[in-house]
Design brief:
The complex is a heterotrimer of chains A (about 210), B (about 260) and C (about 650). Chain A is built from five helices and no strands. With about 210 residues, chain A is mainly α. Chain A has a domain of about 130 residues: Cytochrome c oxidase, subunit III, four-helix bundle (Four Helix Bundle (Hemerythrin (Met), subunit A)). The longest helix of chain A is centred in the first third of the chain and has 36 residues. With about 260 residues, chain B is of the alpha+beta class. Chain B has two domains: about 100 residues, no CATH class; about 110 residues, Cupredoxins -  blue copper proteins (Immunoglobulin-like). In chain B, α4 packs antiparallel against α5. In chain B, the strands form two sheets. Chain B has a five-stranded mixed sheet with strand order 4-3-2-6-9, with no helix packed on it. In chain B, a hairpin with a 2-residue loop joins β2 and β3. Chain C is mostly helical and about 650 residues long. Chain C has three domains: about 70 residues, no CATH class; about 475 residues, Cytochrome C Oxidase, Chain A (Up-down Bundle), CATH 1.20.210; about 70 residues, no CATH class. The chains are: A mainly alpha (about 210), B alpha+beta (about 260), C mainly alpha (about 650). The interface between B and C is large, with 87 and 90 residues.
Chain lengths: ~210, ~260, ~650
């Protein structure tokens, strides 16, 4: 098959802003998909907690995870999101150094949180097989860690590309879209911390 | 003023060839499908409980209700095909009439399907209440049913926890099954009595029935449960109260 | 990047899998079930990552990270410009290439699933045939189910959603061409993972993978769960891509009330898939935790619950059947006006019925769990939502019948599929109503009746619709006409065989035969014998269809640009379709169903030069038919005048 077209480049170049609006829709849909995944995990937590099968949601005498640590980790993600949005405002106001510095700080905070998440995972006062509660905590922590690493990749790209003068006050839709994703990740982390704050099952009757 | 106009229009409409043709096919198909409506219940076999009887009635009734609908769809399809068919390798040279919609026809369609749906719902809710009566009977017998790969075990808590791998039930006495599993999910299905509930590990589920026919019936597992799922079947013997007592005695029960 | 193709991908996958396998053996204890599950999953993840590296999927993100955006030349190469047949074996971004790739993958999956179906029916031909051992039988049943479910999920939105929809809406490509290629190659990476289950002890659970049977299953289950995770990622990406394309890239003037119904159906399907499959992925991640590190999610003694799995599974599983059926039926609604030569009847109702089904479909999942004992008090409400679906489904029949009524019924292969759907889907729908009734479902749940019912919907309506779509768009996708005689023979064999097979399966189910049993009471002997014979007839018909497709694709007569005289945009582009479909983007001035409306809808004067270009393009290669599609389009770029519509 030939692919000759007349009068136009064979690959059509489009207005970057149009592409940006399109990507915004795409990112929102991907956030919806990821949201369904996170919702499934959180639903599992609350469902098993509510059901408390054989009264073994939390095994008898089992230690539970620190709620404070969970909220601290969520706080780390929120802080990194705030730093990122500070950087985003910078580039929207035309300050490229603020973009580079802000994304660098945001990624640093995010990686520090990821290290904290790994430390929490390795120092839980229970094993993954102890009870449904402990399995759920390990899984939620793992999912959060995955989120953080993916976001760190995006943040690193923003920092590097900012450094290379790719974004400007008029052309920054990629920075904005990464900001959307970052906000969602922070929201997911808060939802996770909120969920794991509820430990003991309300269903204790005979 | 409008009434005669409407009547005249209706008469003209009913004289149209396509209306008459579809009506004729519809009547014939409906009649055939109504005759067919009694087949599903026959295939399900003679019921051994009021529950199964209710299910078979439902099957017949729903098939009867669906008959004119299905017949109508097929009548239009058949008539259009016969009357307006275009053969050949080229597209028809002339297009059909540019009918974009027909509001009365669409409205009627939605109303009729809503009414049918409402009927299904009302029937369903009434039937759910009716088949649940065995569960609240004061003289009900309780049977604990345990599934494990790949056998059923029955135990009679009111009869000194007597255990058996075949189910014996006295006729015409409500029975409540408490069903659980030792390993994976099974499903406790008494075929001729029309009841089924899953056997879940860690949970006890309940179903109930009043057997009303003497005889030997089938219990099958209805949830894929591993290697020998196909062999996980046993029998239920519905016997007279006297025979039930003597069965209990001969198996070490209190009688 | 330029040297990568499917060969390097397989090599990369094998290397990745081997490295993962080697490392896992070095560092993990493999002398227990958890250990071997860990090794299996890691090896498969290694395969998938290696495969995606080998095909070049990570090249783009890496360049992006490094700040090296792709040049115009790179994009042209990625789109497969001037690469001949080789572009079908690369990470090619052209939506038409991806559509063809999806079509081939779908046909492979359907073929394998069909062979597995023949094995099942052969085993069941006699009450105790012993053709397959129970272990093999269970595995074959599970693989058949899963293969067919995946194949039917992608069979319409994959090939036709990618190839046809962008042209139909007047776009040059998908919104995200690279994500498009990514979703396709993830599916390719998924296929060997899925089928490796056959040699890893099989899937003993059926396609539904119920826990805790899945917790005690052999490593074949690891293949199942890894495959589903890959598939879920692929479908989320494809869903986001197709949805964005439809939302943002419709041609100027293609308002929502002028958008072809097939585009609506595709949007509904992929839109439902976006939240549905990640939930399935979630349930599979939990299963993976259970199987590899002793998690307790589905283990009752550890505080877990099999009902958790069932809920997550059916939260995906019921939207999923509409993911399959809606686009297939929408394709039939799209082609029926073409062959009835009449406008689509009550377009608004057609759209509303699709929207209604989508809305209700997320509220009916627990009708699969009436008999689970999970929440008997909720059975009533779920019966309500389930039976409400009969109303929008009925409207689909209204639309098709209204379109056929008084039309010029041109009995081509696609139109025959519409007729087959009218027959099959009525039976599938009515039997669905029996099953929605709680007491009747207590009796029929888990029996062959259910198996027959969902084959009537997924195969009788879904696959029939997909075959209708294939026969309809075949001339546009391949540039050649499909062999009519072979197509007719296949149609009758498949449809008659199908009805024989599954009508007798209803009988077996009513008489009390459970699903998924390797042998059965001789009471069900006749029904099963007839069912198996019918299945062989389907198999024969499908082989003839395969022959028709392959031989026509290679040597069939060249197709004119618009052989059916259709009015949608994809028929205005010439055969073969140029790389970016349209030289000048079309402007839409009416919906594509103006059959029989004569010149009423061409009031807009066309700009001379581009109109000529399109007319030339449309009469195209062998100049056979003039597309009436030009009626709805004009090809100049200025804003749409106010008086666009009479």
């Amino acid at each position: 098959m030939s692919s000759v077209t007349i009068g136009e480049p064979a690959v059509h170049l489009e207005d970057p802003d149009k592409v940006g609006r399109r990507w915004r829709t795409g990112i929102l849909l991907l956030i919806l998909a990821d949201g369904a995944f996170v919702a499934a995990l959180l639903f599992s937590y609350f469902y098993l907690r509510g059901l408390n099968t054989e009264k073994a949601w939390v095994a008898h005498g089992q230690a539970t995870a620190s709620i404070v640590v969970g909220w601290l980790l969520a706080g780390g993600v929120v802080l990194s999101a705030a730093l990122y949005h500070w950087a985003l405002r910078g580039i929207r106001a035309g300050s490229e150094p603020r973009l580079v510095l802000g994304t660098l700080l945001a990624v640093a905070v995010l990686l520090a949180t990821a290290i904290g998440q790994v430390m929490q995972l390795t120092t839980f006062p229970f094993g993954v097989a102890d009870s449904a509660y402990s399995s759920a905590l390990y899984t939620l922590a793992g999912a959060n860690l995955f989120h953080l690493l993916l976001t760190a990749f995006l943040g690193a790209a923003m920092w590097n590309r900012g450094r290379l003068h790719i974004y400007s006050v008029t052309s920054n839709w990629q920075v904005r879209l990464v900001g959307l994703w970052w906000t969602w990740v922070a929201g997911a982390a808060v939802l996770g911390a909120f969920t794991t704050s509820f430990i003991a099952s309300p269903n204790v009757g005979g | 003023m409008t009434a005669p106009t409407f009547g005249a229009r209706a008469r003209a409409w009913s004289r149209r060839a396509e209306v008459r043709g579809v009506f004729l096919i519809w009547v014939v198909l409906t009649a055939l499908l109504c005759l067919f409506s009694f087949v599903p219940a026959r295939l399900m076999g003679a019921p051994a409980s009021p529950t199964k009887q209710a299910v078979e009635t439902t099957m017949t009734l729903f098939t009867l209700a669906a008959s004119p609908v299905a017949a109508f769809v097929w009548a239009i399809a058949i008539y259009s095909l016969v009357r307006w068919r275009h053969r050949g390798k080229q597209a028809p040279t002339e297009d059909g009439p540019a009918i974009r919609t027909n509001t009365p026809a669409s409205a009627l369609w939605v109303v009729v399907s809503s009414v049918l749906c409402l009927f299904l719902l009302v029937w369903g809710f009434v039937e759910v209440q009716a088949v649940a009566t065995s569960a609240s009977a004061s003289d009900a017998m309780v049977v604990d049913v345990t599934g494990q790969q790949w056998v059923w075990t029955f135990s009679y808590p009111q009869e000194g926890n007597l255990e058996s791998d075949q189910l014996y039930l006295p006729v015409n006495r409500p029975v409540i099954f408490h069903v659980t599993s030792k390993d994976v999910i099974h499903s406790f299905w008494v075929v001729q009595m029309g009841i089924k509930v899953d056997a879940n590990p860690g949970e006890t589920t309940q179903t109930s029935v009043t057997p009303d026919r003497l005889g030997r019936f089938d219990i099958r597992c209805a949830e894929l449960c591993g290697l020998l799922h196909a062999d996980m079947e046993t029998s239920v013997h519905v016997v007279s109260p006297t025979d039930f007592r003597s069965w209990l005695r001969s198996n070490g029960g209190p009688g | 990047m330029r040297r990568l193709n499917v060969g390097t991908a397989v090599a990369g996958g094998l290397i990745g899998g081997s490295i993962a396998w080697f490392l896992a053996h070095q560092f993990l204890a493999t002398d227990n079930p958890s250990g071997s599950n860990q090794v299996t999953i890691l090896t498969m993840v290694g395969w998938a990552i290696g495969f995606m590296i080998g095909i070049g999927a990570f090249h783009g993100p890496w360049c992006w990270l490094m700040g090296r955006d792709q040049s115009h030349e790179d994009e042209k190469f990625l789109a497969g410009d001037g690469q001949g047949i080789g572009r079908y074996f690369r990470f090619t971004t052209d939506h038409k290439v991806v559509g063809i790739q999806y079509l081939v993958v779908t046909m492979v999956l359907l073929g394998v699933g069909g062979i597995l179906a023949m094995m099942i029916r052969t085993d069941l031909i006699r009450p105790d045939s012993g053709f397959l051992s129970p272990q093999v039988y269970n595995s074959v049943v599970g693989l058949h189910g899963l293969t067919m479910i995946i194949a039917t999920i992608i069979m319409v939105t994959g090939p036709f959603g990618n190839f046809i929809v962008p042209i139909m809406i007047g776009a040059r490509d998908m919104a995200f061409p690279r994500l498009n290629a990514l979703s396709l190659w993830l599916i390719v990476a998924f296929v060997p993972v899925l089928f490796s289950a056959a040699v890893l002890g099989g899937i003993p659970t059926g396609w539904s993978g119920y826990a805790p049977l899945s917790d005690q299953a052999p490593p074949g289950m690891d293949a199942y769960l890894t495959a589903i995770v890959i598939f879920a990622i692929s479908s989320a990406i494809a869903g986001a891509n197709i949805t964005t394309t439809i939302l943002t890239m419709r041609a100027r003037g293609m308002t929502w009330n002028r958008t072809p119904i097939f585009v609506w159906g595709t949007l509904a399907s992929v839109g439902l898939a976006i939240p549905a499959f990640p939930m399935f992925m979630g349930s599979m991640v939990l299963l993976g935790v259970d199987r590899t590190v002793g998690g307790q999610f589905y283990v009752a003694s550890g505080g877990g619950s099999p009902w958790l799995y069932a809920n997550l599974f059916w939260l995906m599983g019921h939207p999923e059947v509409y993911v399959i059926v809606i686009p297939a039926v929408a394709a039939l609604m799209e082609l029926t006006p073409v062959f009835a030569r009449k406008p689509l009847f009550n377009y608004t109702a057609a759209v509303l019925s699709i929207v209604g089904i989508v809305g209700l479909s997320i509220m009916v999942w627990a009708h699969h769990m009436y008999a689970s004992g999970w929440a008997p008090d909720l059975n009533g409400p779920f019966m309500l939502t389930t039976e409400l679906i009969s109303i929008p489904t009925g409207i689909i029949f209204l639309v098709v019948l209204g379109t056929i009524w008084r039309g010029r019924i041109w009995t081509t292969l696609p139109m025959m599929s519409t007729y087959a759907m009218l027959w099959n889907f009525i039976i599938g729908g009515v039997t669905g109503i029996y099953l929605s009734d709680v007491p009747a479902d207590y009796d029929l749940h888990g029996s062959m009746f259910v198996t027959a019912h969902f084959h009537y919907t997924l195969m009788g309506a879904g696959l029939t619709g997909a075959i209708g779509a294939l026969t309809y768009w075949f001339p546009k996708m391949t540039g050649r006409m499909l062999d009519r005689r072979a197509g007719f023979a296949s149609f009758w064999l498949v449809q008659i065989g199908f009805n024989v097979t599954f009508l007798s399966m209803f009988a077996a189910g009513l008489a009390g035969q459970p699903r998924r049993v390797e042998h059965y009471d001789s009471l069900f002997g006749v029904a099963n014998l007839v069912s198996s014979l019918g299945a062989y007839v389907i198999g024969l018909g499908m082989l003839i269809l395969l022959y028709a497709v392959v031989s026509s694709w290679r040597r069939g007569p060249l197709a004119p640009a618009n052989p059916w005289g259709s009015k949608t945009l994809e028929w205005t582009v010439p055969n073969p379709i140029p790389l970016e479909n349209f030289e000048v983007l079309p402007v839409v001035i009416a919906d594509p169903y103006g059959y029989g409306e004569g010149d009423l809808r061409v009031p807009v004067p066309r700009a001379p030069a581009p109109a000529e270009a399109v007319a030339g393009a449309a009469t195209g290669a062998d100049g056979a038919t003039t597309p009436t599609g030009a009626v709805m389009t004009r090809t100049d770029a200025p804003p749409i005048p106010e008086q666009e519509r009479p």
